[in-house]
């Protein structure tokens, strides 16, 4: 039997050893002052979910608040903030949230690509636990916008599952094989109808936790175009005219020298409209002086082909103008939405650079140039915007549209609105000519062609509210 003095010595030795072991494990970071980050939950030490900060306006950028009515400025700011909140609700995606997964987790779950139809039941693929043998296994799954269930649940399994058809589902079994068999039959069904939203599944086993996304999406019906082998079934030529019938007729004549049957759509907002004669020409008369973008919307709304070619009314087709080359590029790269060419050797492609900001708004700038070459297409480049000579996918452009509030000062603005929506390419080798300027008087046209400064100021005020911009640099 151990004496009292020996017992004291033993306790001192074991206590010292324990302290040394704790210090060692602490240094090796085996014991931590705070628990490790959970799967799907960002570490507090990481800056993966930074708050919106003020963006930086480039040198020479225009401060847009200077063009907003000072008397109603506070009310405009309030309304803009309210509209932006609604915009964020419409655009928010569950998949945009940052989710982190820890190392050495025994949980297996889908991290991408699990898409369900609203209100319909779907099995969650790949759910399982990889753990050592033990006497009991307990797993919990929970969601917020739907319900969970184990499909084909047998009578002998019912006491192992709690929360069947509810937001929180618990499974408790004594066998790892039984656990994974039940997890393989877990289904999800959304209970809140939405055509495009998501949910997050919280998956817990012992001290391990994971979060993975479910994308809830109503499938879309395909819209296909039968382009056949005839350019007339593939492309419609569109233009907008205003007080320039001499140039318009020259354009049509140059088109018909090469393309005899292709449809031409004209949007006309002249004060004294003149009927343009010719076969397969559709001329739509508008109220006078409605402007460029209103005319573009009208013309594109009447297109029935897969593509349309936009040209100005004073352009001129030459022997180098080959619409077929445009189509060939677009068909070989279905992800492209717009491909621009060059006008009299001027391609005028540009990048739109946008930085999201805080409550003051974002910062936008337009920079000449391209991003990088388009793979497999020589002399073509990815960019943000191109000149007024481009081939575009009809359905893609209709989704973005042309803002009719921009009457006389607008071109780049279409590509600004399409940033992130339209994939744009520039192929300078695809060319068209430009008619020489007439020496005759057309004072009424130039009065509108060179708008007053007030038009530009109105455009800047529009950018402030509509695009939620703090500053812009063209």
From TrEMBL:
GO terms of molecular function: acetylgalactosaminyltransferase activity
Superkingdom in the source lineage: Eukaryota
Domain Glycosyltransferase 2-like: 240-347
Transmembrane feature ranges: 7-26
UniProt entry tagged with the keyword Methyltransferase: no
InterPro entries cross-referenced by the UniProt entry: Glyco_trans_2-like, Nucleotide-diphossugar_trans
GO terms, biological process: UDP-N-acetylgalactosamine metabolic process; UDP-N-acetylglucosamine metabolic process
One Pfam family of this chain: Glycos_transf_2
Keywords on record: Membrane, Transmembrane, Transmembrane helix
Protein name listed in UniProt: Glycosyltransferase 2-like domain-containing protein
Organism: Synaphobranchus kaupii (Kaup's arrowtooth eel)
Source lineage: Eukaryota, Metazoa, Chordata, Craniata, Vertebrata
